[in-house]
Amino acid sequence: MDERRTVKVSKYLSKHLRHQPERIGLTLDPGGWVEIDTLIIAAADHGFRFTREELDHVVATNDKQRFAIEGNRIRASQGHSIEVDLGLPPATPPPYLYHGTVDRNLDAIRADGLKPMNRHDVHLSADRETATRVGARRGRPVVLAVDAGAMHRDGHVFRLSANGVWLTSAVPPRYLRFPGPR
User: Fold this and answer.
1) What is the chain's percent helix, strand, coil content, to nearest 5?
2) N or C end of the chain, less CB within 10 A?
3) Per-domain residue ranges of the chain
4) Domain 3-76 and domain 97-177 have a common topology
5) 69-83 pLDDT, tens per residue?
6) Where would one find coiled-coil regions in this protein (predicted)?
7) Which class does domain 3-76 fall in?
8) Spatial distance between the Cα atoms of 129 and 112, rounded to a whole number of angstroms
9) In this predicted model, what pLDDT tens digit does every residue of 108-160 receive, in sequence order?
């Protein structure tokens, strides 16, 4: 399977497992799971064909491990804009986590902190390198440090997704550490 096809299938899965399952007639269970055969048939019925082998390849090779397979079911690991309960228990975060963004967002973040926007949670990375890659998707990256230890002590809940992304409902500005002037 070539790289372009892998990316195309991955984006299709993200769209329909995280954001718009109803567009192809899918109904996810409360945990975000759907039967793989049901997904493949629904996609084909809506003009996008892929095989189980292609699906397995996309899941296995995705650098962010965006998808999880259990038995004959699949779901997105995190990043949903639709209501799902991933069943992730609260977890104790490391002292600092990181968030990648771009300059044009900094004024709003300074004022309001990090908000989930069109997702259910704010996504945080365990290391600066990952946060840098996330921020770079939108332009020149800026990495913010999040005082996750202090947030946790103050009662904020964190969860860790299957693919290593830390999730929390919001990050108030007082817990953010901004880089110096560029």
Assistant:
1) 40, 20, 40
2) C
3) 3-76, 97-177
4) no
5) 999 999 998 888 898
6) none
7) mainly alpha
8) 25
9) 999 999 999 888 899 999 999 999 999 998 899 999 999 999 999 999 999 99
